[in-house]
Design brief:
Strand order of the largest sheet of chain A: 8-1-2-11-10-9
Number of strands of chain A: 11
Distance between the termini of chain B: 93 Å
Distance between the termini of chain A: 38 Å
Structural class of chain A: mainly beta
CATH superfamily of chain A: CheA-289, Domain 4
Helix content of chain B: 25-40%
Low-confidence stretches of chain A: 1-8, 154-158
CATH class of chain A: Mainly Beta
Largest interface: A-B, 26 and 31 residues
Strand content of chain B: 15-25%
Number of strands of chain B: 35
Oligomer: heterodimer
Radius of gyration of chain B: 34 Å
CATH architecture of chain A: Beta Barrel
Low-confidence stretches of chain B: 133-152, 169-199, 405-414, 591-613, 746-753
C-alpha cells in the first residue's frame, strides 16, 4: 500500500518461499504456502477469466490453478520447461499458483523490506507487498490475498 | 425449552449473521437488487417464524423493517440513514433474541422508537418519490389495511390505526407505546444479556458442516476407486494370497459407503413437523377451516436437500392456506364442503423425490396474474396472447410477484414463491404448478435424492470431457446427414427434427467457446436431448462416453459466476471435469424457458435479440489480408485437405471427397499448394458438392450482418464490419456455377410450365441478392422489393404475381403486418404468401398462420423454399385448371 514507515519489532524475520516468474524473483510468505507441486492433468475451464489456467485434482481436492504470468501481465512461457505450482489456501479453497521455477526458502529481516518502487509495473505493483534487496537482485514479495482477487470476466456468453 | 423455539433461535442467529454481511455490501452498492432481495427474504423469514411462535415484539419490528426494505425494492432511493436504521433494527432484534435465549420469553421493553423511525423513513421516501409518477403497486403497498397475525390484545392498536396516526401527526410525536402483556418470566434488561457464550442454545446442538460430510463422502469415493483398482489387479493375478483379505476389504468398503450415505438421509417428515401447528394457527387467523393431510412422511432424502426445502415447503403451505383456500362461506356458495384440505405428499420416483402440495381451493386467478405480470413489465400484451394458461401461472415464480390484493403478515409480499424457486433451483430441482379454476391448485416439486453423488453422462466437446447430470437427460440422438434425425439449420439456429418436433440445438463447443472452428460438422453429431422444466432442447457434443456416478464438488468461488457449470467432479481416472448446468444452457438458449427462469432478464434478452438479429458468420482469409466472410448457414462443411490429394484435371482442381470427385474453385489470389494442407469451404446441395479454396479459416462469429458498400468485384456482395474489422462478404451464388455451370438451373427448371412470377420482399440486400438468383435459376420470374411498403406498391401496380415471398423481421412494417394487409385487400386476398424467417419457434409459426401465411420457410433452407414455392404455385395451377 502507501504507508511509508513500517513498524517492526527489532530482529523480526519472515521466511519466504521464492519463485521465478518471467525472470523476476518473487517471494511468498511461507506461512501461506501449503505445498509445491507439479501440475498434472490440468483441466481448462471454459468461459473462465484468462488468469485461471484450469483446475486439477491434487490428492482428492480440486485445486484452482492461477497462471501467474497472465496475472502479472507477462507473456506466455515458451521456455518449454514444465511449470511448477505453489499451493495456497484462501477461505478453505485450494489454489495453485503457476510459476516458472521454484527457488530456495529465504529467511529475511522484516526491516529489510522496502515499499514498492513507484515505477514498478502497475500490474505487478498491485500484487506486490514490498521488495527485498538481495545480493544482486530484488525479490518482490507477493501478497497472496491480492493475487487471488481475481475479478470474473464479463460473462462472454450471449 | 420448546423445540420449535430452540430451532428458531439457531436458525435466526445464522440468518442474522448473513443479513449483517449482506447489509454492509448493500450500503456499498445500494442499487444491487440481488443483495436487497436476499436481505428482504431473510427478514421476511424471521418475521414469518416469529408470528407462529407468538413473539409479537420481534414480529412487529421485523415487519416494520421489512416494509422499509420493500420500499427500497420498489425503487425508493436508499440513503445512508435508512441503512443505519435497518442495521439498528437488526441489532435490536439480536438483543431481543439474546433475552429470549436467556429467559425463554421476549424481554420487556418497547421498540416503538425504531418502528416509528422506520415508518417515518418510509413516509419521507414516499414523499420524495411522490414527484415522480408512482407505480400503483406501491400505493397499494402502503395503504392497504394491515392485518396482524393474531388478535389484538386489550389496549393495543391495530397496525392500520398506527399507520394512520403516523400519517396524520407531525413526525416527532411518538404514539404511545403499545402496552405489553406482562410475561411471567423473569425480567431481564435486554441490553445486557448475561448469558455467557458457553451455554447458548444456539451452540448446544451440533450442526455438522456439510463440508465435513462431503469430505467423508469424498474419502469413501476415493476408497471405492482404490478398491476397484486392487480388485482389477487381483483378477489378473490368479491365486494370490491377497484374494481373501481383499474380498473382506471390498465388503467393508461397500458397507462404509452405504453407511456414510445413510448418515445424510432423513425422513422428509422432519421438514413437516412444524406444518400442523402453522396450519392450525393460520386457520384461526384467516377464519378458514383447514385440514392438513400428510402422506409419505417417512420418505427419506439427503439431509442437505431437506434443509433447503424446509422453507419452501412452509411458504407453499402458507400460500395454499392464504390464497388457495376460500372462506367457509365462499366454499359453501361454490357447493364445496366448508373445510378446505391441503394435501402434502412425498414419494420416490427414479432418482428423485416428488413432493406435491395440493389444495382444493379456488385455483389460481389467471386474469389477475396476467394483469400483474403486465403491470410489473414482465411481459408484453402480445406475448401474453400467445401464452397458455399453464405458462401464465408460472409467473408466480417471478421475483416480487404477488397477486394478493392485500399485504398481510401471512403472505402476499411477493417473496414466497420467489424464495421457493430460488431454493429449489439451488438443489437442481424443478417446480411445476397446476391449477384448475374452482377445483384447486397443486405445486409439484421434483428434487434429486442427494446432491453428493449424482449419475452423470460423460460427454466430449472440443477435446475436453464434461458431465451432464443424467436427471436432465431425456435421450441421446445420433444425428447423421442422411438419417431421419438430421441437424438442420435455420439461419444461424441449428434445429433437430425429432418425431415431428423442432428441437433447438446448442453446440456445447460454441456455448463454452472452446470450438476450434475447423471441425464443426453441421450435420453430424451426438445430441443430448435435455429437459429443463418444460423446455426441451438438444446439446450437440462431439462424443458420448458412459454414465458414471460422480461426486459433486462445488465450483471455486473464482469460477462460480460461470452459469454453464454447476460444479466439478473427479472422475475415476483422476481427472477433474466440469459438470454442465442444464439451467445455464437453457438460459443461454434464451427462449421461452423464461417463464420458469429469470423472466425479466430473459425478456430483455429476447427483445434485444429481436432488435438485433445475429448471423453466424464464418470469417476466413483468401487472396488478400482483408478478411472475408460468408454466412455459416450456407456452408455445409469445413475441411482441411492435404495438398497432395488435390489433383489437376482438365485444367481444374479436383479432390476425391467422400468417394466422389469434388471440383475446387479458387478465390482470386488464392494459390493451391502453398502449404501442406488446404482449408476449403464445402458447399453441398442435392448430392453435389463443391469446395471453395481459401487461405485460412479464422473464426466463426455471431454478428449483426449489415452490408454497407455494394461489391466492387465479382463474387463480393459488399463489406460489413465484423468484430470491428471491415470484412468482405462473399457472394456464394457467384462461385457455385463456377464448379457446375448448371448449379442453379439443372433440376428445378421446368420449361413446360410458363414461368411464374414471384415477389420477393426483404429489407436485407444480402438476402435479396442471395435468393433472387436461386429463384431465377429455379425458373421463376423474380421481382424484388426492399420493404413491405414497396412490396404492396408492386402488388397494387397491376403486375400479376403468383406468389409472394417475404421476410418477417423488417423495419416499419413487418412480415406479419404485410401479410395481414394483403389478406385484407380484396384483390389480393387469395395471393399465396410464404414467410421467410429465422424465427422458427412453434409460436412464431402459429403467429404466421394466423397472419395468413401459407407456408413458413427458414431463410437458409433453399430446398425447402423451392419445395414450398412449387407447392404453392402447383396449387394455383390446379385451381386454374
Amino acid at each position: 500500500m502507501t504507508s511509508t514507515t513500517v513498524q517492526v519489532l527489532e530482529g523480526a524475520v519472515s521466511e519466504y518461499v521464492t519463485a521465478v516468474i518471467g525472470g523476476q524473483l518473487f517471494g511468498l510468505p511461507i506461512s501461506r504456502v501449503q505445498d509445491v507441486f507439479m501440475p498434472e492433468r490440468l483441466t481448462r475451464v471454459p468461459l473462465s477469466p484468462g488468469e485461471i489456467a484450469g483446475v486439477l485434482n491434487l490428492r482428492g481436492r480440486i485445486v484452482t490453478v492461477v497462471d501467474m504470468r497472465a496475472r502479472l501481465g507477462l507473456p506466455k512461457n515458451d521456455a518449454g520447461r514444465p511449470p511448477m505450482a505453489i499451493g495456497v489456501d484462501l477461505r478453505g479453497e485450494s489454489y495453485g499458483l503457476l510459476i516458472d521455477q521454484i527457488g530456495e526458502v529465504l529467511k529475511l529481516a522484516d526491516d529489510g523490506r522496502e515499499d514498492n518502487p513507484v515505477n514498478l509495473d502497475p500490474r505487478m505493483a498491485r500484487l506486490a507487498g514490498g521488495v527485498h534487496r538481495l545480493e544482486g537482485q530484488l525479490m518482490v514479495v507477493l501478497d497472496v490475498d491480492r493475487v487471488l482477487e481475481i475479478m470474473p470476466d464479463m460473462p462472454a456468453a450471449a | 425449552m420448546d423445540d420449535l423455539l430452540r430451532e428458531f433461535l439457531t436458525e435466526t442467529s445464522e440468518s442474522l449473521d448473513t443479513v449483517d454481511n449482506q447489509l454492509v455490501r448493500f450500503e456499498q452498492d445500494p442499487n444491487n437488487a440481488r443483495i436487497l432481495d436476499n436481505i428482504f427474504r431473510l427478514v421476511h423469514t424471521i418475521k414469518g417464524t416469529c408470528g407462529f411462535l407468538g413473539l409479537p415484539r420481534l414480529e412487529a419490528l421485523a415487519h416494520a423493517a421489512e416494509t422499509l426494505m420493500g420500499k427500497f425494492r420498489d425503487g425508493m432511493p436508499v440513503t445512508g440513514e435508512a441503512v443505519t436504521l435497518i442495521l439498528n433494527s437488526i441489532d435490536r432484534i439480536k438483543e431481543i433474541l439474546a433475552g429470549l435465549e436467556a429467559t425463554q420469553a421476549e424481554p420487556d421493553g418497547t421498540d416503538q422508537d425504531l418502528i416509528v423511525e422506520l415508518h417515518q423513513t418510509v413516509e419521507r421516501g414516499m414523499q420524495a418519490m411522490a414527484a415522480a409518477p408512482v407505480q400503483p403497486a406501491i400505493e397499494q403497498g402502503t395503504l392497504v389495511p394491515q392485518v396482524l397475525e393474531r388478535r389484538l390484545r386489550p389496549g393495543e392498536v391495530s397496525l392500520d390505526e398506527l399507520e394512520h396516526a403516523f400519517r396524520a401527526t407531525a413526525s416527532e410525536v411518538a404514539p404511545p407505546p403499545a402496552p405489553k402483556a406482562a410475561k411471567p418470566a423473569a425480567k431481564k434488561a435486554f441490553a445486557e444479556p448475561e448469558t455467557s457464550d458457553a451455554d447458548r442454545v444456539a451452540n448446544q446442538s451440533i450442526r455438522v458442516n456439510v463440508d465435513t460430510l462431503e469430505h467423508l463422502m469424498t474419502m469413501v469415493s476415493e476408497l471405492v476407486l482404490t478398491r476397484n483398482q486392487l480388485l482389477e489387479i487381483s483378477r489378473r493375478n490368479e491365486d494370490t494370497e491377497f484374494k481373501v483379505p481383499l474380498q473382506r476389504l471390498s465388503n467393508v468398503t461397500a458397507e462404509l459407503q452405504e453407511g456414510v450415505m445413510k448418515t445424510r438421509m432423513q425422513p422428509i417428515g422432519n421438514a413437516w413437523q412444524k406444518l400442523p401447528r402453522i396450519v392450525r394457527d393460520l386457520s384461526g387467523e384467516l377464519g378458514k377451516q383447514i385440514e392438513l393431510e400428510m402422506h409419505g412422511a417417512d420418505t427419506e432424502l439427503d439431509r442437505q436437500v431437506l434443509d433447503l426445502i424446509k422453507d419452501p415447503l412452509t411458504h407453499m403451505v402458507r400460500n395454499s392456506a392464504d390464497h388457495g383456500l376460500e372462506t367457509p362461506a365462499e366454499r359453501l356458495a361454490a357447493g364445496k364442503s366448508e373445510q378446505g384440505t391441503i394435501r402434502l405428499s412425498a414419494y420416490h420416483e427414479g432418482g428423485h423425490i416428488i413432493i406435491c402440495i395440493a389444495d382444493n381451493g379456488r385455483g389460481m386467478n389467471t386474469e389477475r396474474i396476467k394483469a400483474k405480470a403486465l403491470a410489473n413489465g414482465l411481459v408484453s400484451e402480445a406475448e401474453l396472447e400467445k401464452m397458455t394458461e399453464a405458462q401464465i401461472h408460472k409467473f408466480i415464480f417471478a421475483p416480487g410477484f404477488s397477486t394478493a390484493a392485500a399485504v398481510t403478515s401471512v403472505s402476499g409480499r411477493g417473496v414466497g414463491m420467489d424464495v421457493v424457486r430460488t431454493n429449489i433451483d439451488q438443489i437442481g430441482g424443478t417446480i411445476d404448478v397446476k391449477s384448475v379454476a374452482g377445483e384447486g391448485s397443486s405445486v409439484t416439486v421434483k428434487i434429486p435424492l442427494t446432491l453428493a453423488i449424482v449419475s452423470a453422462l460423460i460427454v466430449e466437446a472440443g477435446g475436453d470431457r464434461f458431465a451432464i447430470p443424467q436427471l436432465a437427460v431425456v435421450e441421446l440422438v445420433r444425428a447423421r446427414a442422411n438419417s431421419e434425425h438430421r441437424i438442420e439449420r435455420i439461419k444461424d439456429t441449428a434445429v433437430l427434427r425429432l418425431r415431428n418436433k423442432l428441437l433447438p440445438l446448442m453446440h456445447l463447443k460454441k456455448l463454452l467457446k472452446i470450438g476450434d472452428g475447423t471441425s464443426t460438422d453441421p450435420e453430424n453429431g451426438f445430441i443430448v436431448v435435455t429437459q429443463v422444466g418444460s423446455q426441451t432442447f438438444g446439446i450437440v457434443v462431439d462424443g458420448v462416453f458412459h454414465t458414471e456416478e460422480i461426486v459433486v464438488k462445488p465450483m471455486s468461488t473464482k469460477l462460480r459466476h460461470i452459469e454453464m457449470f454447476s460444479g466439478s467432479t473427479i472422475l475415476g481416472d483422476g481427472a477433474v471435469i466440469m459438470i454442465i448446468d442444464p439451467n445455464g444452457i437453457a438460459k443461454a438458449l434464451g427462449t421461452s424457458v423464461a417463464v420458469s427462469h429469470e423472466i425479466a432478464d430473459e425478456n430483455a434478452a429476447m427483445r434485444a435479440g429481436a432488435a438485433e438479429q445475429l448471423t453466424s458468420l464464418l470469417v476466413f482469409r483468401a487472396g488478400s489480408e482483408q478478411p472475408k466472410a460468408v454466412p455459416l448457414g450456407l456452408v455445409t462443411r469445413l475441411e482441411e485437405i492435404a495438398t497432395d490429394k488435390i489433383e489437376l484435371s482438365n485444367g481444374r482442381y479436383m479432390v476425391q471427397y467422400r468417394d466422389r470427385l469434388m471440383p475446387l474453385v479458387q478465390m482470386n489470389g488464392v494459390s493451391v499448394g502453398a502449404s501442406d494442407t488446404q482449408p476449403i469451404l464445402v458447399f453441398a446441395d442435392d448430392g453435389r458438392s463443391m469446395g471453395l479454396v481459401v487461405d485460412e479459416i479464422i473464426d466463426i462469429v455471431e454478428e449483426r450482418l449489415d452490408i454497407e458498400v455494394a461489391g466492387t468485384s465479382d463474387g463480393i456482395l459488399g463489406s460489413a464490419v465484423i468484430k470491428g474489422q471491415a470484412t468482405e462478404v462473399i457472394d456464394v451464388g457467384h462461385f457455385l456455377p463456377m464448379a457446375f455451370a448448371d448449379w442453379f438451373s439443372r433440376k428445378e427448371m421446368r420449361p413446360s410450365l410458363s414461368a411464374q412470377s414471384v415477389l420477393l420482399v426483404d429489407d436485407s440486400a444480402f438476402f435479396r441478392n442471395m435468393l433472387a438468383p436461386v429463384l431465377k435459376a429455379a425458373g421463376y420470374r423474380v421481382r424484388v422489393a426492399p420493404s413491405a411498403q414497396e412490396g404492396l406498391l408492386a402488388l397494387r401496380s397491376g403486375q400479376a404475381f403468383d406468389v409472394v415471398l417475404t421476410d418477417i423481421e423488417m423495419p416499419d412494417m413487418d412480415g406479419f403486418e404485410f401479410a395481414e394487409t394483403i389478406r385484407a385487400d380484396q384483390h389480393l386476398s387469395a395471393m399465396p404468401i410464404i414467410a421467410l424467417s429465422s424465427m422458427v419457434s412453434p409460436a412464431a409459426i402459429e403467429r404466421g398462420r394466423l397472419a395468413g401465411f401459407h407456408d413458413y420457410v427458414a431463410k437458409f433452407d433453399r430446398p425447402g423454399l423451392i419445395a414450398a414455392l412449387k407447392e404453392q404455385t402447383a396449387e394455383i395451377s390446379r385451381v386454374a385448371a
